[in-house]
Amino acid sequence: MLERAWWHPVADAAALGDAPQAVTLLGEELVLWRDHAGQPRAFADRCPHRGTRLSLGRVCEGRLECAYHGWQFGPDGGCAHVPASPGFVPPASHRATPSAACIAYGLIWVRLDAAGRNAPPPFHAETDPRLRKLLVGPYDVATSAPRIVENFLDMAHFGFVHEGVLGDRAHTAVPAYEVQLDANGLRATGCMAWQPRSHSQATQGSWVAYDYAVPAPYTALLSKAATDAGRRDTIALFVCPIEPERSRVWFRLALCDFESSDEALRAFQDQIFLQDRPVLESQTPKRLPLTAGEMHSAADRACAAYRRWLLDLKIGFGTV
């Protein structure tokens, strides 16, 4: 499964404390924990001794300890201690199954295959000191990760799903824009949308210039500027593909707005996404059709290109 070679977000980094945490990625059950240096580690959530969930255990002196018999596993997955046989030196075969893990953009990311992408998808706005960073979510959604990414790219629904906020019924036309596919993924540039309230502090409608990028199958970036204010905010959509038809979503905001409270910014993002969620969960099939079964118009060129790209990448998790 090619999706295993990509990095995927699985948890809020700030939420992983001293206790192990169970997560699911691409249908596989994992346990997250922090080693003695505070670095995140990800193992298959199964003790190799008797198959107990390692997430039921605890972290003891920089090792993950199984709740059943107390076997302890080091950061590389190797068994370091068997309490019932204290003189026993476990061989290399006595080990948990580790996956690569790291922290980026306030999230813990995991790559299931030992070989694959070197790092999580780029989000360059993260290092811009002129922008305020805030993580929003998670939102659990009963649909596939590709359906969620495609919805993020779709401007034609603004006047209906987000009427009075991101769009209105008097301005539903989607002007022509450019789409490019290359080794770095998908880009849609020159997009324009009329928005009654394009950001949390907006008090009147304006035309907003949008640029989209999709650097990874389940990640999308939006950079937008309201023409009346010269604002340029960047929003990253990070989706964890839990199961083929079950996903978890975070937004990483990089904003010009340093005045609004965290609570106000989160409430605004909640308002938008919670309008999207029932629509997303109503779509059938829940897995994104890549070749047939749904129709397109000229306004859907970014979504159609996204489907072609997934097909070229042979992404099968969450597609049909």
Compressed to H and E, one letter per element, the order equals: EEEEEEEEEEEHHEEEEEEHH
What is the strand arrangement across the widest sheet?
Answer: 11-17-16-15-14-13-12
Q: Classify the secondary structure makeup into a structural class.
A: alpha+beta
Q: Number of helical segments?
A: 4
The global form is elongated
Relative strand content: 25-35%
Quaternary: single chain
Q: Kindly state the number of beta strands.
A: 17
Describe the protein in words.
By secondary structure, this protein is of the alpha+beta class. Helices cover 15% and strands 35% of the residues. The protein contains 4 helices and 17 strands. The strands form 3 sheets. A 7-stranded antiparallel beta sheet has the order 11-17-16-15-14-13-12, covered by helices on one side. A hairpin with a 2-residue loop joins strand 5 and strand 6 (63-65). The two termini are 14 Å apart.
Task: Give a short synopsis of this structure.
The chain is an alpha+beta fold. Helix content is 15%, strand content 35%. The chain has helices at 145-153, 158-161, 262-282, 301-313, and strands at residues 8-12, 21-25, 28-34, 40-44, 58-60, 63-65, 72-73, 79-81, 98-104, 107-111, 132-141, 178-182, 185-195, 206-216, 219-226, 233-243, 246-255.
Q: Which terms would index this structure?
A:
single chain; alpha+beta; six-stranded antiparallel beta sheet; 35% strand; 15% helix; 320 residues; 4 helices; seven-stranded antiparallel beta sheet
